[in-house]
Amino acid sequence: MSYNVDHPGLTSTIFISPADLQENSTLTTQIIALENTAFTRLHSAHASNWEAPTIRFPNPQKLFNTIGPSGVIALILDTSRTSAETPVPELVQVHDKYNKEFKKGKLVACALIVPWNGGWEKEGAATETGWEAKAVAVDEEERYLKKGIAIQLIADVKKYLIEKKKKVSGEGKGALTLWVLTGEELNGAYWRRRGFVEVRRKTWKKPTWDCLSEFDMVVLKRESDY
Questions:
Q1: Where are the domains of the chain?
Q2: N or C: which end of the chain has fewer CB within 10 A?
Q3: Which domain of life is it from (predicted)?
């Protein structure tokens, strides 16, 4: 794992099933808090066209519905945070089944990884396959923000999905498609810098996604051979 800053307490990316998340109310609460804060921060940076504050997940059920039965939650903890420094409710304990151990710390990054359904209107559902990275978020503390944590999270997601696909297909070679659906002015440039290419776009008017006037919703993808 490689970050742009020395973070000895950061875990490798941990993958949590929807069922395990629903049994961990503390983690659920912290994911919702992290996501809502991150979305408000993003909208506030473009306040002339987006409502802020904004609530991405108003309740746990909305989060569970977004993940669905086939999705997975990718997250990173900072295990160096102690209860003396971090309020106890913010510390979470998760079972890292891949490494077969429990880890405890502050949630600093997460993303929801779900089967790609073809887009906002499911316009590509008949022909497009792969996985979608949704609600990628990083804690706003200076020690975490803009330090490459989200980039590493997505890199680990790619490795995880490739391993998963290999097990299902029984083949050592293939291709993985990772999709992103976002507002062009919000995150379009960010994802292009990470190797994603535009597939299509459509202009939507308020109040879609809490927009105040109109915006271009873009579908981007990145294909990786293995």
A1: 14-171
A2: N
A3: Eukaryota
How far apart are alpha carbons 40 and 225 in whole angstroms?
35
215 close to 203: Cβ distance less than 8 angstroms: yes
Task: For 90-101, write each residue's pLDDT tens digit.
Answer: 899 998 888 788
Residue 190 main-chain phi, psi, to 5 deg: -60, -50
- What distance in Å separates the CA atoms of residue 145 and residue 140, rounded to the nearest whole number? 5
Task: Report whether 221 contacts 174 (CB < 8 A).
Answer: no
- Tens of pLDDT, residue by residue over 34-78, are 999 999 999 999 999 999 888 999 999 999 999 999 999 999 999
Give the torsion through C-alpha atoms of 176, 179, 185, 186, to 10 deg.
-100
Residue 146 near residue 135, CB atoms below 8 Å = no
Contact 110, 34 (CB under 8 A): yes
Write down the pLDDT at residue 1.
42
Hey, is 180 helix, strand or coil? strand
Mean pLDDT in residue range 121-139: 97
CATH T-level topology, domain 14-171: Aminopeptidase (3.40.630)
Report which secondary-structure segment, H or E, holds 134: strand 131-138
Task: Indicate if the pLDDT at residue 2 is higher than 50.
Answer: no
User: Contact at 8 Å (CB) between 148 and 2?
Assistant: yes
